Amino acid sequence: MATPSPSEIAYEEAHIGDSRQLGIAISNGVCYGVAVVAVLLRLVSRRLSQAGNRVDDWWAWIGLLSMTFYIASYQTIVHYGLGRHSILITNLKGFIISSTIAAVFYNFTILAIKLSILYFYRRIFPQRWFKYALLANGALITGSAVSSMFCDVLQCVPLHSQWDPTVKGHCIDFSSVILASGIVNVITDFTLLILPMPVLWRLKVSQSRKRLVMSTFMLGGFVCVISTVRLFYVRAFKGVDPSWGDIDTTELSTVEIGIGMLSACLPAYRPLWNHFLQPKGTVNVSKQPPTDRSIKLTGISKKWNGHSEISGSEDEERLYTRFGTVGVAQGDENISHHGHDTDIVVTRQFAISSTGDGF
Fold first, then answer.
1. Considering the domain boundaries, does residue 101 fall inside one?
2. pTM of the shown model
3. Range of the domain at 128
4. What's the pLDDT tens digit per position in 59-82?
């Protein structure tokens, strides 16, 4: 922490009663509440679709757990003086250690959210080039997050040289590290937003799903805006009064995580969307155990074992799933399959109630 000049000390003394701690607590509570509700709704959606947790779901849960530790450490920094001027900090060791822990969990939470999105993309979009692009983005996101966490912990060696003036330490230019990490964060945010666009533009989907997709990407765009604004605050902060001057950056970080968690979970809400806003004229799905499920698709009767991924609209759609046994009643549908319990592609115009997940 930089040593304040006499004029800066005089300013802090003149504003000794200033406090933003209540605002920090409210911001943390709201953002954490949004994240918890987002992940719980994801769980409810999975139950409605009778689908088990996938890799992207597990990363969302890991992200929520990491955010819990982030919020806890963030509030601990408030206890040690965040939200007040630095001359009021009486336990510099506790302040720095709590700040380091919060920074580590911030970076890990961002990593978990983005990995959840990447694994969701990987499950939904089968194109080979798309998977290579996801792999490259995943490597960049993981490398940036891991390096940032190492820099958080090792910004000064030994660590206690930051609060013990009798110990000589070797410190990196941490402001430059934060700026570089912020730039990579903004780049990967925009990449995750833009990457699926070419595939989505070619989809023929119903208006309800178009609205869901648009709301998802509007939230993703909002996260990009928050990351960009946060980057400007990082550049503007000089580090003289960190317990006061760094509040805007830390609050934007919390908002970024909360909205990011919601944005990552929103595509999984399609079963919820269909459950509460089922269009008129759709065919109800019979509630059978997941081991032996039957579904009617306007003249088509199918029975299979395992999980179903059902999607449909009045547009022509392709339905991919793994069937055990198939019985076709009647209709002009085209069905192709190879052997028992293999991939089957059904192409037909139909309108049904969707129980799957994703877009």
1. yes
2. 0.75
3. 6-275
4. 999 999 999 999 999 999 999 999
